User: What shape does this take?
Amino acid sequence: MQTSIGGAMNRFYAHCQQKNFADAPFHGNAAVLNFINTAKNSRRHDYLPSYDAFLYWCREGGVIDGSTYLTLEFEAYCNPIEIQELHRQVIELRETLTELFTALLHKTELPVYAMPRINRWLATARQHLSYQVINGRPATQWINIHEELAFPLWVLVLEAQELFDPVWLAKLKQCRGCGALYLDVSKCRTRTWCSANACGKKLRNRRYYKKKVLGNNA
Ligand SMILES: [Zn+2]
Assistant: This one.
């Protein structure tokens, strides 16, 4: 039985090592695209099988900082029932964003249910945003987010809202290798894979094999 936060942390780290988070997709150039890319497809497993895993992923992916992670990790440990519902919302948000950005990428009809859901999450997130004076200028700040287990979801929804801007949508692409979504921020906009060391390497090796091996046997 877990009786301390230390025990809970060990459990999370064991889970993450077991799931090999070092391989988690972080190549999207945007946290919200990385979030979409955590879903299972033919080449990868689901990186977010629980709220605990989601929280850890958020820390690894820069959605929340280490201090927020520790606070929410303890809060999650104390609220096992609440995090089950939150995990359901995590998956619902991921599915909604996946369908939405895939439709935007392929310029197809947007799913009708997507906007009401996004609006619902945005409305909650905005209740925790406030203009403050920072260095003599107005800037938005998060307020009253301490111990709010849904906070990482709000961060992701706000970033999704930013990506709806046509400037960013023009950079949206899908990896030819694994199907991951990413922003192509390369100078010439000619990137066709999510990562140079993952799918990029595989595609280069395939091209080399075709040219050298198949070419010589032709
Ligand atoms: Zn890829």
Observations:
- The domain at 5-111+148-217 is CATH 1.10.3300 (Jann2411-like fold).
- The first helix runs from residue 5 to 18.
